[in-house]
Write the structure tokens for this entry.
Amino acid sequence: MAVFEQKLIRPIFKFSNYHTFKFSNHQHISKLAHQQIVKMKTFEPNLKDLDIDQLTEFLTDFVTEKRLERIKEVASKRTRHFAVALENLFQGHNASAVLRTCDCFGIQNVFAIENVNKFQPNEEIALGAEKWLNISHFNDDKSVEKCYAELRRQGYRIAATTPHGNPVPVDEIDVSQPLALVFGTEKEGLSEQALKGADITVALPMYGFTESFNISVSAALFMQKVIDKSIAQRVDRFIDIKDQQELVAQWILKTVSDPEGLLKKFREMHGA
């Protein structure tokens, strides 16, 4: 992690013997350090009605030039053209692996349906990927219905992944329009409601005796397929400049140790 110019996360990690530190040994982490980590991962800045250009310019004083360039580079490759929805995953390592894959492929929007199983990524596997993504949670009795309604509100065509029935082969999916891929639990797959409510069902090619891939593997393969096809067809999948600038501001705020304080200072300076 880069060293920043003001109160950032790295300075709080000072150990007498670096080589003996283990993340599983919480005695080596101060209470303050733990609070800082949780805060960084859970903080969702509300930038509504703020001048993003002014905010970004203000925030650049609190991050190194190298770090800022990296943030801008990643933001320029982000996409909302594709989204991923996960229904009731109960194994944290699989949820975490999917989040890492979304981040690696630049897929910004993730939707977690958790009316049965709470969406709980494993931090050691996710490696912080969740803090760079926009994760929407749906956790009541109408979770599938509400999630699908939100996906459609954002313009997505919903593709439920399943090897059963008569799914469309992944290579035949239309990627010219926004597409949300929906994945189910590790054992049972998607619920009947999730399957019936989708616009289409889609499947990966299978050539062996095993019925399906592991959920994290399946998600990675589907994402690779649709991203590759969008590249081959020259689909403009990246977010626009305005969206990039907002992400840059959000990510800087998720990197510093006192994001609320900085936002308050900015609002005071600009009367926002």
